[in-house]
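Marked as duplicate of an earlier ticket. Keeping the data here for the record.
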Amino acid sequence: MPPRWPRKPDRADPAYRRLDDRMTFAVHVVAFLACNSGVWFVHNLKQAQWQWIVWFSAAWAVILLGHFIYIAAIADYSEKYNG
């Protein structure tokens, strides 16, 4: 059962903004896991010599960490947001 929002979704609502940011982060994590596991699976299956694969995974992991730091520590979910 999908989560239900009790009132009209409005980006000016701090609780909705916080939930939206966290759901976007969850989608980002799923995309990271799906793409990286697929790339590493093909890499190992074909025994390919892809030197870029480590940099690809590391760069995306750093971006994912930055996204987490933003939603956990930097994002402002106060009432003063005007859109």
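See parent ticket for discussion. The longest helix spans residues 14-46.
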